[in-house]
Amino acid sequence: MSKKSKQRELSGLLVVDKPLGVTSHDVVAAVRGELHMRRVGHAGTLDPQASGVLVIGFGHGTRLLNYIVDHTKTYEATIRLGQTSTTDDSEGDITTVAPVKLVDGAEGETAEVVPAPLADDSRHLPDSTSDSDGSSGSVRVLTIEQIEQVIKEHLTGDIEQVPSSYSAVRVNGRHAYELARQGKTVELDARPVTISEFTVLGAHNAEVTDGLDAENNEIKTTASATLVVDVDVRISCSTGTYIRSLGRDLGKLLEVGGYLTKLRRMRVGKFDLADPQLAERVVTAHAKPHTFTNREGVKLTLNKAVLDVDADELKRRSLTMLEAAQRTMPTIPITEADTQNLRFGRRLPMPSSDDVNAKSHANTGKTGRTDGIAAVYLPQTGEVVGIVEPANKHELKSLVIFPQAK
Fold first, then answer.
1. How large is the average pLDDT for residues 313-339?
2. Is 112 exposed, middle or buried, given 0-12, 13-18 or 19+ CB atoms closer than 10 A?
């Protein structure tokens, strides 16, 4: 046996604060290059236009990623009301639906909001207070109270959501966004999701030109400005929820149109940027332009992810397998004899509730894949032996057995 094969494989998890402008795969590639490892993956994609928590697994830690994907998540986002986007975010073509202005409760008492139905993904929203092109006519007024009322009544709790036609949902084996970008009509079925929190953090009036925010110095023309309202929100939701779709639906319900301009993921399960115990463990990165020539001889410039720490610091900030397991699922201490039994394919007796550390694992919602699943470990060494599940009411059987530590 070679010296390399005898070495213990480096394993664990990293909590990376993904920057804007790079893909989740770009971050995985950066970690892979820094650690000189091939077995690296992530627990849930973030779009290039989104920043925030990206959980990276390496070595045996990749076996935990399938369970982390199903954990609940928290996002902070900005929804722009008064316009729509073909992609439900700022990457698409922007159109004005209804110039809109935020007023206080007293001014907006006469501005009744009648929610529009969400039966389809139509962007032809009714507008009774301004011209159809939004260029003239009266301005629609909204209050924060009206926005919060619509959210409470229609976008909180267990709801049916139609994903964006530019999402990664597969249609006949292809991603929906691939078909949409080819100009094909994409019809997606509504799916159940759970929104446990949808809080308005603040809102303000803004003026945009040609669908682009003047403060970003991205105005392409000198067209007249359009009034919009930017709403900052915090959303906690089940896996499979599309935040872009929530922004679209809020605008549709308010009859003014809406799309997402900013998105930041703050939490995935127990991997939370606000957790003081993780503050010094979070790895930051930045986007760096990278110019190369492709196989067709065309020179291209794309962003790549660059970690802000070196390999030694990356290892120091990583979560051990036990730390990672404790934030992923219940954990059960076992003996050396139990370990040998598991390695030989034998079952273990069901532990008492007092022996299971269930407080550390994350809530996965109604369809969470960690129901009944736990990690077993040796308390004297902290070694994670494997992942188990109930075989029956009295026994546990192994799902995953990790190689014995050298």
1. 96
2. exposed
Is the separation of the CB atoms in 77 and 263 below 8 Å?
yes
- Tens of pLDDT, residue by residue over 36-50, are 999 999 998 898 889
Q: Which residues are catalytic, by number?
A: 47
pLDDT in tens, 225-235: 889 999 999 99
Beta-carbon contacts of 377 under 8 Å, excluding residues fewer than 6 positions away, are 322, 325, 331, 332, 333, 334, 383, 384, 385
In this chain, the answer to whether the domains covering 10-71+271-321 and 73-267 adopt an identical fold is: yes
The CATH superfamily label for domain 330-401 reads PUA domain (2.30.130.10)
What b-and-e string marks burial along 75-100, b requiring 16 or more CB atoms within 10 Å of the CB?
Answer: bbbbbbbbbbbbbbbbbbebebbbbb
Domain ranges of the chain: 10-71+271-321, 73-267, 330-401
DSSP H/E element including 66: helix 65-68
Return the bridge partners of 78, or none: 232, 262
Alpha carbon distance 57, 60 (integer Å): 8
pLDDT on residue 5: 45
Q: How confident is the model at residue 404 (pLDDT cuts 50, 70, 90)?
A: confident
Here the tokens at position 369 are 């894949």
Mean pLDDT of 214-237: 74
pLDDT of 137: 54
What type of residue is 15?
Answer: V
Read off the amino acid at residue 67.
Y
What is the CATH topology of the domain spanning 10-71+271-321?
Pseudouridine synthase (3.30.2350)
Q: Alpha-carbon distance 353 to 313, whole Å? A: 38
Measured CA to CA, the distance from residue 285 to residue 268 in angstroms comes to 18
